[in-house]
TrEMBL record:
Pfam families on file: Amidase_2
The name this protein goes by in its record: N-acetylmuramoyl-L-alanine amidase
The enzyme's E.C. designation: 3.5.1.28
CDD domains in alphabetical order: PGRP (cd06583)
Annotated N-acetylmuramoyl-L-alanine amidase domain residues: 20-148
GO molecular function, one term: N-acetylmuramoyl-L-alanine amidase activity
Reaction catalyzed: Hydrolyzes the link between N-acetylmuramoyl residues and L-amino acid residues in certain cell-wall glycopeptides
Enzyme class: hydrolase
Keywords: Cell wall biogenesis/degradation, Hydrolase
Any one GO BP annotation for this protein: peptidoglycan catabolic process
Length: 164
């Protein structure tokens, strides 16, 4: 049985690629300890699963500009979003409201991100470590700009809001 937040609506849930070409696999018993925040580098929330049809990547959740939370892959699975951190993390993509170089996200997206991480913490009974993609194990500012110049300076605020 797939595990997803009750705040999320399944959206093309685990059906955005052909069978045998999944962009996820087993966590192999790894404990979930971390949430990795991403930006979609897209302003069309509906396009996200389509990108994964062509790219070997995926995420557990996406949050739209109006705050809507969509589940793409069950949390019990290891998605391909953050290199070495994949096995022990949950990946959340935040839709942008502007294109680059700013890649801004809406306040509604930030508010839903906080609520989703609070829900994850509650369901797992602990506070998750919250990092931006470039700070996840195996990544750096040299390998990715994600979660983008709009979200990076807000990560401390997001962590504070989640934990209060």
């Amino acid at each position: 049985m797939s595990m997803i937040s009750p705040l999320a609506t399944p959206y093309e849930f685990e059906r955005f690629v052909k069978t045998g070409e999944e962009r996820w696999n087993s966590r192999e018993g790894a404990e979930i300890t971390t949430v990795v925040v991403h930006h979609m580098a897209k302003t069309d929330f509906d396009e996200v699963p389509e990108v994964w049809r062509e790219r070997e990547a995926s995420a557990h959740y996406g949050i739209g500009p109006n705050g809507e939370i969509r589940a793409y892959v069950g949390e019990e699975k290891r998605v391909w979003h953050a290199r070495a951190a994949n096995s022990y993390s949950i990946g959340i993509e935040c839709c942008n409201v502007t294109e680059g170089p700013e890649w801004e996200v809406s306040e509604a997206t930030i508010d839903s991100l906080v609520l989703l991480i609070q829900d994850i913490n509650t369901r797992y009974g602990r506070k998750m470590r919250i990092v931006g993609h470039q700070c996840a194990e195996g990544n750096s500012a040299e390998t990715t700009e994600c979660p983008g110049p709009s979200l990076i300076p807000r990560l401390a605020e997001i962590v504070g809001r989640v934990n209060n």
